[in-house]
Amino acid sequence: MEHQNPRKTVAFLLISFLLLQAPKPSLSQPLLSSPPPQPTSIAPKHHPHLHRVLTGVLLGVLTGAIASLLFLLAVRASVHFAARTPILKGPVVFSPQISSRSLHSALSDPAHAPAGDCFQLSLDNGLVVAVKRLELDRPNASSPKPNLRRAQRELELLARAKHQNVMSLRAYSRDQDRFFLVYDYLPTGSLEDAMKRVRAGQMALGWEARHRIAVGVAKGLRYLHFDCSPRILHYRLNPANVVLDEGFEPRLGHCGLGRLPAAGGSDVLGAQCYAAPECFQSCRYTDKSDIFSFGMILGVLLTGRDPLDPFFSCDSAAGGGGLGGWLRHLQQAGEARDALDSGILGDEVVEEDMLMAVRIALVCLSDLPADRPSSDELVAMLSQLHSF
């Protein structure tokens, strides 16, 4: 069925309105051939009222038609603009320390061929940056442009995030369906690297540093959830995406990449250990899903254990409930102290703070998203720990 042309509709309504407004021939002087008017007992009292009603209805219909036409034209223009958004080919730079030419040259150098999804890169001005390689999904190989435009818009949004506990996107470059995201390079590495060295006895990380890391991660989430417009969700919060500086101040890395139409990462199993239950049950992700992931990170900081440790398998004493289930079981049994990392116990005040932090972690690990605190509330709760 063909759709009616909105312009013809508006023209028809306008002509009808003008016809109603046109002057009528006077009936006060009858024609010579006409008989004298017969007297009537009822005067046409309702004719002016009916005329006003019809005029109002016609004006309302005409106004609605014009508004609908303008709305359709606006939607069409916005869709047309989005479809015509140019896809940038060269590197897009957001930092004055990085030039588009030097970044393109470094990425094109065969000697700098990436060995994984994340690698470091030296530019010709001596600056060392961290690079994440991101492969885009191609659900329709014959038409990849919508995915590229969407990814480009999301990256422009992520580049605006500026906070001391968030890794800012400094630049990005595209090679066909592959994006290279450029961040500041921090030689200390990630929280995952630090905890591996702690477990191997190669590094000491006391409660003061672990508490600082927890507070910094919570502040980064609070910035993303409450200070960014539109709100940014992390989607993949885990120790590998928490980068530490020399003073163990954390920065959230790779924020918001879950909105990109990207293929799955290389460490899918590791990421799943930190994902909230609703991500598997309904595929719905909210800010409370980020809070669940934070609860897992806090559990790692408190216990020193890796969620992938065989200790948490079904055949172990942990009962197969994972790190969160094990913590909850010990808390309910009044044995939460047994879960704490023995390498940092000893001080009574430290132990008291860590036991309080166990309660915070368990609230974050609640099965129902509504039972978890917001990131704003989380910062307040962690700040109440008074050891330092």
Summary of the model, kept short:
This protein has helices spanning 6-21, 47-83, 100-108, 145-158, 191-199, 207-227, 268-272, 277-281, 287-303, 322-332, 348-364, 375-383; strands at 92-93, 118-122, 128-135, 171-175, 178-184, 242-244, 250-252. It is an alpha+beta fold and 388 residues long.
Describe the SSE topology.
Blueprint lengths: L5 H16 L25 H37 L8 E2 L6 H9 L9 E5 L5 E8 L9 H14 L12 E5 L2 E7 L6 H9 L7 H21 L14 E3 L5 E3 L15 H5 L4 H5 L5 H17 L18 H11 L15 H17 L10 H9 L5
Antiparallel strand pairs: 1-4, 2-3, 3-5, 4-5, 6-7
GO molecular function: ATP binding; protein kinase activity
InterPro entries: Kinase-like_dom_sf, LRR_Rcpt-Like_S/T_Kinase, Prot_kinase_dom
Protein name: Inactive leucine-rich repeat receptor-like protein kinase CORYNE
Q: What is the percent of helical residues?
A: 40-55%
Instruction: Tell me what the CATH architecture of the largest domain is.
Output: Orthogonal Bundle
Radius of gyration: 33 Å
Shape: globular
- According to DSSP, the number of beta strands is 7
In what order do the strands lie side by side in the largest sheet? 1-4-5-3-2
The CATH topology of the largest domain turns out to be Transferase(Phosphotransferase), domain 1
For the sheet with most strands, the description reads: 5 strands, antiparallel
Q: Averaged pLDDT, please?
A: 83
CATH class of the largest domain: Mainly Alpha
Low-pLDDT regions: 26-33
| Number of self-contained structural domains | 2
- Number of helical stretches of at least 4 residues: 12
- Alpha-carbon distance between the termini? 73 Å
